[in-house]
Write a sequence for this structure.
């Protein structure tokens, strides 16, 4: 689950991680009031969307302006807020469709001496969180890794023990910190690493982490994502979720108890089991097709869930064919076919439909399909199914 910058900074502050003062606004007039309240000669007006690259991004309505703007007066803050609010911001992470800006964050100006990069991710090969840091603040970590990989510092730490003093010193020396900044790092780095662990984060990125003229460290930006599998431990985070920033079909699927991720292809996939869903997508690509989604109905889906699954898949205008791949274990094949046929009648499926079944009661299920009178193509195995669904598109 992703959250906005201003939300992440509020959580940072609650754990004594230094952040600049800022005010959330939703109107241009409030942006002017925020400038006055912050009281610095320079302020920054920041678009709040779930995407990186906002500073380098451009608005569709006025491409001369980015999503992060320096302002030097109340009038300047109001004018920029008027242009930004309700406009569509396109960044390297939003895709060409961009995202509409409905919230702004007005933040105090700082005396910035240096900009650094600091992030924490889960290293799944090692099974530990890993600090990633670099002196090249302000750049995307992908660019740093490609152009100057030697400038990236990586330090794994035990989430139960936290970042140790010797690890803090290692990172600080590599970043070229000294004096007051070195002392500040002794508090800042361990607190951020603790924040990552106790909140079950999957990603934490501060880009840039700034060193001020008097040696303070502050999180000038904040990008945080939480592991959704752990959100039952953080019920207070529910209020941080911004559904307008999420794919509507993914939200709808989650509410129906389905696992759905929208992709860019044109072959819809309805499968029971995450591993089987991944294999199904692989086989579609192997035979020249492109999956339009990942959709796992799970091992105990009912008629309503299967109907909702079809409705979600077909709501994507890019879907030109659907492959249903079911291995009946806990869920019997005849049960899934009953649900499939009911859903077929309710929704009125008009695209080619290929069904592959295997497992418990498979013969009965195949007989039900054969006697249904529906325009449904059956397949003997997964390879056969993938070839047939791709063939329906003339590939």
């Amino acid at each position: 689950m992703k959250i906005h910058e201003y939300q992440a900074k509020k959580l940072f502050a609650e754990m004594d991680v230094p952040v600049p003062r800022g005010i959330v606004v939703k109107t241009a007039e409030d942006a002017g009031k925020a400038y006055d309240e912050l009281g610095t000669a320079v302020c920054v007006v920041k678009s709040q969307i779930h995407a990186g690259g906002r500073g380098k991004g451009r608005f569709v309505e006025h491409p001369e302006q980015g999503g992060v703007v320096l302002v030097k007066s109340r009038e300047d803050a109001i004018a920029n807020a008027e242009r930004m609010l309700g406009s569509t911001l396109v960044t390297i992470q939003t895709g060409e469709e961009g995202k509409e800006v409905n919230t702004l964050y007005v933040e105090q100006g700082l005396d910035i001496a240096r900009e650094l990069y600091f992030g924490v991710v889960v290293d799944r090969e090692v099974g530990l969180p890993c600090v990633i840091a670099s002196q090249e603040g302000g750049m995307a970590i992908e660019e740093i890794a490609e152009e100057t990989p030697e400038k990236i510092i990586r330090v794994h730490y035990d989430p139960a023990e936290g970042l140790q003093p010797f690890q803090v010193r290692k990172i600080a020396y590599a970043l070229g910190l000294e004096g007051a900044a070195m002392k500040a790092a002794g508090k800042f780095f361990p607190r951020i690493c603790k924040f990552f662990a106790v909140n079950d984060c999957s990603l934490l990125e501060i880009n840039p982490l700034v060193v001020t003229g008097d040696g303070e460290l502050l999180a000038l930006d904040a990008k945080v994502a939480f592991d959704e599998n752990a959100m039952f431990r953080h019920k207070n985070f529910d209020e941080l979720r911004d559904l307008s920033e999420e794919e509507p079909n993914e939200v709808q699927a989650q509410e129906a108890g389905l696992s759905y991720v929208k992709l860019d292809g044109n072959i819809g996939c309805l499968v029971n089991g995450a591993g089987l869903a991944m294999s199904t997508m692989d086989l579609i690509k192997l035979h020249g097709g492109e999956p339009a989604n990942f959709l796992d109905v799970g091992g105990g889906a009912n008629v309503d869930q299967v109907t909702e699954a079809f409705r979600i898949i077909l709501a994507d205008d890019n879907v030109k064919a659907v492959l249903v791949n079911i291995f009946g274990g806990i869920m019997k094949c005849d049960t899934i076919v009953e649900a499939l046929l009911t859903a077929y009648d309710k929704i009125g499926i008009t695209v080619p439909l290929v069904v592959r079944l295997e497992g418990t009661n498979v013969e009965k299920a195949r007989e039900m399909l054969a006697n249904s009178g529906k325009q449904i193509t059956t397949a003997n195995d997964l390879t056969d199914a993938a070839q047939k669904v791709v063939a329906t598109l003339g590939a």
Q: What stands out?
A: The first strand starts at residue 22 and ends at 25. The mean pLDDT is 90. The longest helix spans residues 180-198. The CA atoms of residues 274 and 296 lie 6 Å apart.
